[in-house]
Each structure stands twice: as structure tokens, then as C-alpha cells.
Amino acid sequence: MLPDESLVPLKPKDLQIAQTLISSGILQGNYRDEVALMVQSGMRAEIEALYFHGYDYLGKYIAKKIVQSDYI
Asked: Which domain of life is it from (predicted)?
């Protein structure tokens, strides 16, 4: 979970991309749910927000996602 200070408002282009992703059907269920939540809240997080969990967290997080092939 990220603190509210790590979130920024969606830009119109972000909203357009998110809505296109949701309607396209290419997103798996849990990713579609996350994007829908982002649209509903009107907020997004920059990847740098993961630094909140510590400097090493971001590198480990990305490496884990790549190794596990857990990405869009």
C-alpha cells in the first residue's frame, strides 16, 4: 500500500489509455480490476512511489516481476 502523498491525479491522456485498456479485453482480471480502481479514484502512482518502501525495493520488485513473468 502506498501513502496518499505518492498518488497524483490522472491526466486526461492517462484516463483515455486506462479506458481503452479496460474496454480492449487484453488485460487479465486482476490487472483490469486495478486499472478500473485507478479510473474510479482518479489517481495514479508513479513507479518512483515504490521508493516509499525503501531504496532497494524498486529494483527487487521489478526483477521479481520479470523473473516471474508477472507483467502485462
From this structure: Eukaryota
Residue-range domain boundaries for the chain: 4-67
Separation of alpha carbons 22 and 61, rounded Å: 24
Q: Are 22 and 35 in contact (CB under 8 A)?
A: yes
Closest to 38 (Cα-Cα) out of 52, 58, 25, 21? 21
Rounded Cα distance, 15 and 70, in Å:
23
Q: pLDDT of 63-72, one tens digit each?
A: 888 888 876 6
pLDDT of 51 higher than 80: no
**Percent of the chain predicted with pLDDT > 90:** 35
Quick one: which of 68, 51, 55 has its CA closest to 3?
51
